[in-house]
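Running this now, will post back.
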Amino acid sequence: MTRLLALLFACLALGLVAAGCGGDDDGGDGGSGSSADTQEQPAPAAEGGGTEVSMKDIKFNPGEVTVKPGDTVTWTNDDTAGHDVTGDNFKSGDAGALQTGDTFEHTFDKAGTFDYVCTVHPGMKGTVKVE
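Update: finished.
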């Protein structure tokens, strides 16, 4: 009976280990330790001088964009949570004021690097590089 229980527990443990190794919940990277979400490339300015940033899954996507002076960046809340866009010289409004589907635009007139956050979710950070 003891051997049977030991065998049963061993099989159960093996099954749990195998289930834990099964897949990649974040849309994964094959185990390299980074995902496409964390290895974002700066988004080039779109045709016509505009760049889009999505707010989804408590992240700015892409997290870094590069634009030219005079270009406009548009942030769209594609998330179920309220967000905001707050930088040193620009702000979308009160904390969490952008609800699902809301947008905020800001035109960057001078060169520089402009960091911003969502004040509701301080880990949610982004950067606009104006070159």
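The chain has one helix and eight strands. More later if anyone needs it.
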